[in-house]
Amino acid sequence: MSRPLALVTGASAGLGDRYARSLARRGHDLLLVARRGERLRALAAEIEEAFGACATVVPADLATEQGRRACREAIDAAGRPLELAILNAGFGSRGALHRLPREREVEMVQLNCTAVVDLACYVLPPMVERGAGALVVVSSASAWQPLPYMATYAASKAFELSFADAVGEELRGTGVQTLAVLPGPTRTEFSTTSGENAPGPEWLIPTSDPEDVVAATWRALGRGRRHASIGPVAHSAAAVARVLPRPAMLRGAGLVQRE
Ligand SMILES: NC(=O)c1ccc[n+]([C@@H]2O[C@H](COP(=O)([O-])OP(=O)(O)OC[C@H]3O[C@@H](n4cnc5c(N)ncnc54)[C@H](OP(=O)(O)O)[C@@H]3O)[C@@H](O)[C@H]2O)c1
């Protein structure tokens, strides 16, 4: 019997790399997507050797229609159904919007929002037809509230959370699951890519390991949950968003986030 197939976007680093390794260990074959093909090829070779997984490398810029088309074509070329799609590729930026480069903010929306909708629309119909499969959207603890100085990023993550929640409800009873993953700060290349300063001391900003995020994802999927919050920051962000009036939350977030 062939191994089940999983798609992981943003597999060349951080969480995507760990999702790919964990899935290969759990018996999946993989479609690995990101821009840095060299890194993907090295990862594919490693997991093929270690776990006997077949890993197909898809170098693609998902912030572009051309890259998303390459990804859709790779899904078709696999010639078998996807059991799991992990839409994880993403980045952020930091600073007051009026000082940030417009192109980069728009690129972020293309990757964090457009690519998620595009690929979800592509992978879900065959899953629903088979009555099986799961769509995992890696959002963020930032999804729970607007974040001054990370305005586009937090809005894009709120979009992902809202999207995954609504689609999950539409899919009730179909056998297809959705999960929004909501990590707090996690040790990956994210802060470098997103132009953040070095994170504060651990006692001030508790930071998770990517492995914690991956393990929480499998636990939440196994329990049929719609959300997986990881780390104290994620848990408190959700709680604060429930109780604090929006103006007070915005003011507080603005003070904390100020450059
Ligand atoms: N780390 C955190 O603190 C944290 C917290 C909450 C949520 N998250 C979310 O977790 C997800 C993964 O981030 P990470 O922490 O693992 O960051 P990371 O280490 O920087 O990895 C980001 C991944 O996304 C890929 N990517 C970036 N731009 C892309 C593009 N245009 N097309 C295709 N792939 C692209 C990167 O590959 P290439 O550069 O090779 O394309 C890389 O594989 C993101 O959605 C992020 O918002 C992270």
Provide an overview of this structure.
This protein has 259 residues and is of the alpha/beta class. It has a single domain (5-257), classed as 3-Layer(aba) Sandwich (Rossmann fold). 51% of the residues lie in helices and 15% in strands. α1 runs parallel beside α2, α1 packs across α7 (210-222) and α4 packs parallel to α5 (151-170). The termini are far apart. NADP nicotinamide-adenine-dinucleotide phosphate (NAP) binds next to α1 and α6. Residues 10-16, 34-36, 61-63, 67, 88-91, 111, 138, 140, 183, 185-186, 188-190, 193 line the site of NADP nicotinamide-adenine-dinucleotide phosphate (NAP).
By CATH's scheme, which homologous superfamily applies?
A: NAD(P)-binding Rossmann-like Domain
Listing every helix as H and every strand as E from the N terminus to the C terminus, the arrangement reads: EHEHEHEHEHEHHEHH
Helix coverage percent of residues? 40-55%
User: Looking across the biggest beta sheet, what order are the strands in?
Assistant: 3-2-1-4-5-6-7
Mean pLDDT: 94
Indicate the low-confidence ranges by residue numbers: none
Specify the structural class. Answer: alpha/beta
The span between the termini is 54 Å
Number of domains: 1
Count the DSSP helices. Answer: 9
- Radius of gyration using CA atoms only: 18 Å
Task: Give the oligomeric state of the chains in this entry, treating copies of one chain as homo and distinct chains as hetero.
Answer: single chain
**CATH architecture label name:** 3-Layer(aba) Sandwich
- What CATH first level would be assigned? Alpha Beta
Number of strands: 7
Into which percentage range does the β-strand content fall? 15-25%
Q: Tell me the CATH topology.
A: Rossmann fold
